[in-house]
Design goal:
121 residues, mainly beta, seven-stranded mixed beta sheet, four-stranded antiparallel beta sheet, 11 strands, 0% helix
Length: 121
């Protein structure tokens, strides 16, 4: 299976910046899509941004223009550069990977453990 490990979360002031990283490890799979989701207390998990192996992105309206998603296919890593942070961005951010299991037509969906991002003055 795919193992995902996030890093880069922390406390930042409104208007500040933060960069999240996620690295995938394992074998027997080929990742097709990687992305970031977030969940605030009492709310449902929501999409932040995704990126395909070909570089096509899908970004939530709430963060468009402020966040940038990128990936390094050779390293099976995905990054989220967050700028102009707002208090409403406070949440646990989770890395996600969609993959194809090699040798079959089956697909898998995996999640990281999450990293806390807190935006407060």
């Amino acid at each position: 299976q795919v193992q995902l490990v996030e890093s880069g979360g922390g406390l930042v002031q409104p208007g500040g910046s933060l960069r999240l990283s996620c690295a995938a490890s394992g074998s027997g799979f080929s990742i097709t899509v990687m992305g970031w989701y977030r969940q605030a207390p009492g709310k449902q998990r929501e999409l932040v941004a995704t990126i395909t192996s070909g570089g096509i992105t899908n970004v939530a309206v709430s963060v468009k223009g402020r966040f940038t998603i990128s990936r390094d296919n050779a390293k099976n890593a995905v990054y989220l550069q967050m700028g102009s942070l707002k208090p409403e961005d406070t949440a646990v951010y989770y890395c996600n990977a969609e993959s194809v299991i090699l040798g079959s037509w089956r697909r898998a969906n995996d999640w990281g453990q999450g990293t806390q991002v807190t935006v407060s003055s």
